[in-house]
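User: Here's a structure from my thesis project, written as structure tokens. My advisor, Dr. K., wants to see whether a designed sequence matches the one we expressed. Can you design one independently, without my sequence as a hint?
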């Protein structure tokens, strides 16, 4: 089952990250600024960092161009990493990612990120690439950190099997994460009926929603659901929600 059939929408409390295939740069759509869950994160993890020096990563272009949001919802662009943190990241198995909570400070008029705070969880996927030689390069791609909800999106006009759905459920089963199934193109009634029955029989307790572009009620529900959050999306569904919120 390809990404055209099942895609994951990952909410990291407050932001969206999509991948541009033309420029290979990461772009973001902020649905609502709020405090980016910074206060609740600090209180629940009993951290004593000064709250005005804690931000959340919402864009990463490279290690010399990072965008964060602070607890007031103010966006700060073009942050750098301190030399020590850059060295620590280069020696670690993973790197910074969208959703990370970080400590930042002002050094000679330049905002810099000085530390990465502990993660509640992190979402990643295995990647592999075959070159012209017989060698295959494999590794792990970090997608997001501090994730609260995962929506696995299933299009009702595509081929579907429970076995492939289970692979996504297994990959996205993380601590402190709520899994949801979102059936799109519900107006394909035969496919919708078959797929919904299969999921209900296999996972009767799993949260399952359905929608169609012709049904505005579900879009309103998603809008309310994500009012205090932001989506990191691998599908075009976010565009519908953004449109509903009148966000350009």
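Assistant: Designed independently from the structure alone:
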């Amino acid at each position: 089952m390809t990404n055209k059939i099942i895609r994951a929408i990952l909410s990291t409390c407050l932001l969206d990250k999509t991948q541009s295939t033309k420029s290979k740069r990461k772009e973001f759509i902020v649905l609502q600024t709020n405090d980016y869950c910074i206060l609740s994160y600090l209180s629940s993890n009993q951290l004593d960092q000064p709250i005005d020096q804690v931000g959340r990563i919402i864009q990463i272009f490279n290690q010399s161009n990072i965008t964060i949001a602070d607890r007031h919802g103010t966006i700060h662009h073009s942050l750098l990493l301190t030399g020590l943190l850059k060295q620590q990241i280069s020696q670690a198995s993973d790197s910074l990612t969208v959703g990370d909570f970080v400590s930042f400070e002002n050094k000679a008029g330049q905002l810099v990120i000085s530390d990465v705070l502990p993660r509640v969880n992190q979402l990643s996927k295995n990647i592999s690439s075959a070159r012209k030689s017989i060698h295959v390069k494999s590794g792990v791609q970090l997608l997001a950190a501090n994730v609260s909800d995962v929506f696995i999106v299933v299009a009702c006009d595509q081929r579907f099997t429970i076995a492939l759905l289970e692979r996504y459920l297994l990959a996205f089963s993380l601590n402190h994460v709520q899994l949801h199934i979102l059936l799109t193109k519900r107006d394909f009634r035969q496919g919708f009926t078959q797929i919904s029955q299969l999921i209900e029989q296999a996972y009767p307790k799993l949260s399952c929603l359905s929608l169609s572009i012709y049904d505005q009620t579900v879009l309103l529900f998603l809008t309310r659901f994500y009012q205090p959050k932001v989506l990191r999306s691998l599908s075009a569904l976010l565009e519908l929600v953004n449109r509903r919120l009148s966000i350009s």
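When you compare it with your expressed construct, this may help: The longest strand covers residues 136-145.
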